[in-house]
Specification:
The protein contains two helices and nine strands. Strand 5 and strand 6 form a beta hairpin. It is α/β, with parallel strands linked by helices.
């Protein structure tokens, strides 16, 4: 599969300090700890909290997790569904920033307000039907805003996370040109 790129531009920007070949397989590890035993364990559906913590080696702090409040979760904690939507947004942003750097587009600000839709089945299980990313990007006054918009399409095709899910990840990007001169 050919790496997507724009004409006359490098598709990737490697770290100049990197000298070896990129490994073909990457492994990721996390740790999950259920913190919701209220004394009786899971003796009853209502007897336990859905609270948990997600951590990973070398990370500064765990992510406080729970289930969606509709499933007896703590609304102040992140639920898996929110983290899936956030993961897709993060992956797109990181690819986009990379592609902008490789294609001489200077990004000054980036925000996204993604949302996802999950369909709950009659048996209580669920399936995501779509996620929509809505990034708003501000590029420098000297950057090509058309190219900046095109790079969202390449980022969308390149994102590891989006390529790994079985539902559509839609994109509604907005590119704004900065009025600030360098």
């Amino acid at each position: 599969m050919e790496t997507p790129s724009l004409p006359n531009r490098p598709p990737l920007l490697r770290d100049p300090s990197y000298s070896g070949a990129m490994p073909k397989t990457h492994h990721y590890s996390t740790h999950l700890t259920w913190t919701g035993n209220l004394g009786a364990g899971t003796a009853d559906y209502a007897a336990y909290s859905r609270d948990h913590e997600v951590s990973a080696p070398g990370k500064l702090a765990p992510i406080p997790g729970s289930s969606d409040p509709k499933f007896r979760g703590d609304p102040t904690r992140y639920n898996p569904e929110e983290l899936l939507v956030a993961s897709l947004s993060q992956c797109h942003m990181l690819w986009y920033l990379h592609l902008c750097a490789a294609n001489e587009v200077v990004v000054e600000a980036y925000e996204d307000n993604p949302s996802g839709t999950m369909l709950e089945e009659s048996d209580g299980s669920g399936v995501f039907t779509e996620v929509t990313l809505r990034p708003t990007v501000t590029v420098s006054a000297t950057s090509d805003s058309r190219r900046a918009a095109e790079l969202h399409n390449i980022a969308a095709r390149s994102c590891f996370m989006a390529k790994s899910v079985r539902f559509p990840v839609r994109h509604e990007p907005r590119v704004e040109q900065s009025t600030r001169l360098a």
